[in-house]
Amino acid sequence: MTSARLLRCNASTSAHTRLLDDRRFRTLLSNEDWGRLPLATWRRFSKRVADGESVVYVGVVDEVSFSDIGWWFAQAARLIGGPLPTGRDTGVPMIVTVTEDGTTGGQTWTRICARKRGFPHVIHSAKRFAGPTGLEEYVGFGVSMALRTAVEDQTLTFRSAGYGLQLGRLWIPLPRWFTPGDLTVTHRDLGNGAFRFTLDVIHPRYGALIHQSATFREAVS
User: In terms of domain of life, where is this protein from (predicted)?
Assistant: First the structure.
């Protein structure tokens, strides 16, 4: 059941922040797919701040579920920076900060998920508009994931298209048995400035490992 509680964004794009037209996500989709996105999603993924500046979104975690194997895999992934959810708390705040990286031309993402007890879980990752699919995400220790972008039922969808290890200039594909399986992230507009983020990890042998859903308010510009 989706939580009706939406937290107001406590950080917004500064009045002094210069907004730029961003076509990086637009070029990952066909004209037809881009045209099927809701206007609010189109605007959200066409807004770019200057290098080194950030946009912050605040929301609430609605759903989290793990299989037994998925929970242990998420804990083991903490060795490379904890790129997956690790707790089962719902109704807790989740903060996402997107910062422009002028060095790579990509973005640095920080996700902070509160816990009812103990310290929050923090995930750092970097998106780069490169590679065979045009979009890669790096999560730590050189581990990266290529992402394919699509529009499904007016929802912007990112699906894993292979994992690899970056060693200097060399990119080494990781064997399938060494990866969590297929990862899917969706961004669905809910209207009135709200959107839902979901993450699902499904292994070809063990089935659904991890599911997380959170609802956000977009930053006030």
Answer: Bacteria
Is 120 in contact with 86 (CB distance < 8 Å)?
A: no
Token duo for residue 99: 């910062």
pLDDT digits (tens, 9 = 90+) for 117-163: 989 999 999 999 999 999 999 998 899 999 999 999 999 999 999 99
Phi, psi of 212 (to 5 degrees): -140, 140
- 184 to 10, 39, 99, 143: CA distances (angstroms): 28, 22, 22, 17
- Give the Cα separation of 152 and 200 in Å (integer): 15
Instruction: Give the tens place of pLDDT for each residue, 31-42.
Output: 999 999 999 999
Q: What is the Cα–Cα distance from 39 to 141, expressed in whole angstroms?
A: 37
CB 203 within 8 A of CB 181: yes
- Could you give the 3-state DSSP secondary structure of residue 68? helix
Q: What predicted TM-score, i.e. pTM, was given to this entire model?
A: 0.88
Measured between alpha carbons, how far is 62 from 7 in angstroms, rounded to an integer?
A: 12
Secondary structure (DSSP) of 69-98: HHHHHHHHGGGGT--S------S-EEEEEE
Q: Smallest Cα–Cα separation from 165: which of 157, 150, 175?
A: 175
